[in-house]
Amino acid sequence: MSKTANVAVVGATGAVGETMLAILAERKFPIGKLHVLASERSAGGTVEFNGRDITVQDLATFDPTGVDIALFSAGGSVSKEYAPKFAAAGAVVIDNSSAFRYDDDVPLVVSEVNPEQVKHRPRGIIANPNCSTMQMLVALAPIHRKAGIERINVATYQSVSGGGRSALEELGRQTGALLNFQDPDPQRFPVQIAFNLIPHIDEFLDNGFTKEEMKLVWETRKILGDDSIQVNPTAVRVPVFYGHSEAVNVETKVKLSVAEARALLENAPGVEVVDDHAPGGYPTPVTHASGTDPVYVGRIREDLSHPRGLNLWIVADNIRKGAALNAVQLAELVAKNG
Ligand code: A2P
Asked: What separation in angstroms does the CA of 19 have from each of 84, 125, 167?
């Protein structure tokens, strides 16, 4: 690869795709040619990159020859069909969908946790983890390294932007409708999301958990390289536009005090500790995460019910660190390593 890389963003008109473009520009990623791709419906329209309008091309008819790095965020079925074609044409694909995450020959990488894994990509594909796993592991990896995590209990509070542009629009539309005494008319979500909570994200599996919940189990083990870690997840959609929150309880092999955990987290890359025992002295999606890069950790407490338990409140922008930012960070690692 030369000093610049030819980059394709697949799904460039979507919530994650447009943020990938913004972050590539913000971080001055050394781009040669930039291709922005979406479905036939958007082809011929434009998206903004660095103050310029770039014409959207139809993925179905695009020739990937000459693309060095392709960032995919157009859903699993698009990735399954097109990512191998881009890889066969010589591109390194960084895929935000769950299409390849659990394949042994596809690395699953959080840039602060297992960056060395980007080099082992026999299929030319690197998977970007699920947003909830991403922010949880940025915070938990340093604790795991120091004290050995045996078990994680996690309840997520996930914003609607994780469901893409249509989900953002549905929360806005329903909020307006309900404030005007009209029917919320659920379309994108199975039940009303405005002024409500939905304990269901992605499909239900045979074990009664949702796929979103099992992603936390499967991806935590793969990224930390430890199949013995037990994870007990509940994933909930909340009426927040941007920013996922997680109430996390970890049981470690070695006891960690609050002071020790805080010191580890304060030195962890990508983490910002916000933990004052005062009103507002904790991170929230709106006041901290939305539009920013760090994974925020607050409410650090020793578990009253377990000798080696620790409670954490972990908040991050799911579209940035949870998706687009990590994808661009992986692209930077690929570009650096040639
Ligand atoms: P389009 O705008 O043309 O539908 P979101 O997750 O915010 O809904 O965004 C999904 C992204 O994936 C959009 O950019 C969307 O493009 C793109 N996309 C969806 N289906 C296809 C497809 N079959 N081929 C290419 N891009 C697709």
From this structure: 24, 21, 16
